[in-house]
């Protein structure tokens, strides 16, 4: 039987825990940056990262996995099983169903090079027994990127970390640039994890490699990987590269049409359509958080501006595309993350970006739900899948009632959110009896 929703699995329902005296933390994912995210059908999964609190920077709970469904307008919090990864940020991840692999990152003890996999059906963690020392291990790092290929390999490129010379490394082909002040640096290494054999492999590549970097963005598209930007020393780059996973050939810097986006780090690349990639946000060389959105046509290699300014600056966020074509930006830092004199401001909002209208089917379902006081008796006349969607939406609204209402979504680009039956900030405030308490939570959560 095909999987329709992770939330429908008995293990997920058992793992969902709400406090005896519920708080907003039981119903709304906390703000964060440097986390990992992936879309499984209509559900956006979020794990890890860190945020700023009154006592300083703190990692997010390592046992907690969050799921967000835009159409249901709800978060779902589950507790995972087994010994998972340590608290961390800046890890990279890749999905080989049903396992979500979390690799490398930065912990309380510094950079790491371990690999863990979360079985999304059983919610149980497994530590993948790959070497972590010597020439069969990759050097510890964070701010690298990863992608999966043919359910058998997970590639990692670049990153920022300790000197790699005692690990899997080629002095002739791999480049490392040390930042002396911090004893860490940038690399241009590409390796892959053989998932079956549980070992790292350093492939022989062709073509000019990108410069050493970290906090860049990559996306896998049907055998090709597109890479944009990243940081190398004081430079925040705006070069575009393509890597073919079958031939292991790098393209070199691609010449693009149109106005090029400015150099940046901590941005994202996601799939906007069959032909277009969407790049969002980041951090420029002036240490300014960015709120622009760009489209890259993969056929013509041409850049175009989707939005010069959405009003929602984000860096070190995540961007995932669901089957509807919604690009869901979650979390990220809203101010200068490197300014030690000011506290980091991180977001808990889901930022929606779309390049096309919502489908007529989707609009009709939301309309039927909004008008359920009149149309509820007619639901039984609908096809089964539509009935199940409406019933699931109704069940969420009845059973998942937080102690205070908050809005989950803001619109960055695309059709109005008023077309969907989701709670806006003003509507959420109206649902709360104590307006002062509501306003406090909106600003403090």
UniProtKB/TrEMBL annotation:
<dbReference type="InterPro" id="IPR011043">
    <property type="entry name" value="Gal_Oxase/kelch_b-propeller"/>
</dbReference>
<protein>
    <submittedName>
        <fullName>Kelch domain-containing protein 2</fullName>
    </submittedName>
</protein>
<dbReference type="InterPro" id="IPR015915">
    <property type="entry name" value="Kelch-typ_b-propeller"/>
</dbReference>
<dbReference type="Pfam" id="PF24681">
    <property type="entry name" value="Kelch_KLHDC2_KLHL20_DRC7"/>
</dbReference>
<keyword id="KW-0677">Repeat</keyword>
<keyword id="KW-0880">Kelch repeat</keyword>
